[in-house]
């Protein structure tokens, strides 16, 4: 039986980092998309970014795509939420960073606890797998047909991390029997809402995972189960890197004022760059 690891207030912690994204917005496959190109403009190694609940406009995500572009990847950050991402104010007002949380009164914490499921519940239903997966599959198909495109990778965070794992299942058949979706390599950072073993048994493509030891949505027991499943896939390249004292969202929303947290964020970015450099070449 599959075990679903859910979503909680921990999904909403973190910090908006400073910086101005260097890419551009475009329309690709019917979706608004942030595009960040490598200096040589090559699409030989393309990466599709799958956002967390805060969507494709979140500056942290765009800045990270810029870093991957600097490393030689052609990066696409599509709006898979179709204009319906959770507003970033929810990150700041409902679930402030961990230091600020310590100053909240019990009444404030109770208010937050009630507001989070009231907001997230309907959103998750609206953006359920039956709606989201076809959008991602279709976008991957579109990228595959862009002239000059070589291998394709997918990287996802939190909510988007699970869909990255699903892309690592490889191409699937739609109702007409046509191949849809599927990438050549995938990297999931602190995925949420994953089904264990259901989401991992079908993995056939190289898969890298980054998780924190203080991730309330993917605890040590769940990580151990995933390790056991992937260990049996001796013909599928995989890795699971565990980051000490890091909470859910650390790879995208770490507080840069903390040397330890910024180091973990930087190392997780390098993890993905190294993974894709190897398996998209």
UniProtKB/TrEMBL annotation:
Q: Which Pfam families match?
A: DLH
Q: Which PANTHER family match?
A: DIENELACTONE HYDROLASE, DIENELACTONE HYDROLASE FAMILY PROTEIN (AFU_ORTHOLOGUE AFUA_4G08790)
Protein's name in the database:
Dienelactone hydrolase domain-containing protein
In this chain the Dienelactone hydrolase domain maps to 32-280
The record's annotation in InterPro entries points to: AB_hydrolase_fold (IPR029058), Dienelactn_hydro (IPR002925)
Q: Show the Gene3D superfamilies listed in the entry.
A: alpha/beta hydrolase
Q: Which domain of life is it from?
A: Eukaryota
Q: Where is this region: Disordered?
A: 17-39
């Amino acid at each position: 039986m599959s075990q679903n690891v859910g979503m909680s207030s921990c999904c909403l912690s973190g910090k908006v980092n400073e910086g101005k994204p260097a890419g551009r917005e475009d329309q690709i496959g019917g979706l608004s998309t942030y595009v960040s190109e490598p200096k040589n403009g090559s699409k030989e190694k393309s990466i599709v970014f799958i956002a967390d609940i805060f969507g494709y406009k979140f500056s942290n995500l765009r800045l990270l795509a810029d870093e991957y572009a600097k490393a030689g990847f052609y990066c696409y950050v599509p709006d898979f939420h179709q204009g319906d991402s959770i507003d970033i104010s929810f990150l700041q007002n409902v679930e402030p960073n961990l230091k600020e949380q310590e100053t909240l009164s019990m009444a404030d914490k109770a208010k937050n606890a009630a507001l989070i499921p009231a907001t997230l519940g309907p959103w998750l239903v609206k953006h359920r797998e039956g709606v989201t997966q076809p959008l991602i599959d279709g976008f991957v198909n579109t990228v595959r047909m862009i002239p000059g495109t070589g291998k394709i990778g997918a990287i996802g965070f939190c909510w988007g991390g699970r869909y990255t794992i699903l892309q690592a299942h490889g191409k699937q058949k739609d109702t007409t029997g046509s191949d849809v979706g599927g990438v050549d390599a995938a990297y999931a950072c602190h995925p949420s809402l994953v089904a264990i073993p259901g989401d991992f048994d079908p993995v056939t493509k190289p898969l890298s995972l980054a998780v924190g030891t203080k991730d309330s949505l993917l605890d040590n027991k769940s990580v151990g189960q995933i390790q056991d499943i992937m260990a049996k896939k001796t013909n599928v390249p995989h890795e699971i890197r565990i980051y000490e004292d890091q909470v859910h969202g650390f790879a995208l929303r770490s507080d840069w004022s903390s040397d330890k947290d910024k180091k973990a964020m930087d190392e997780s970015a390098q993890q993905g760059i190294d993974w894709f450099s190897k398996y998209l070449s």
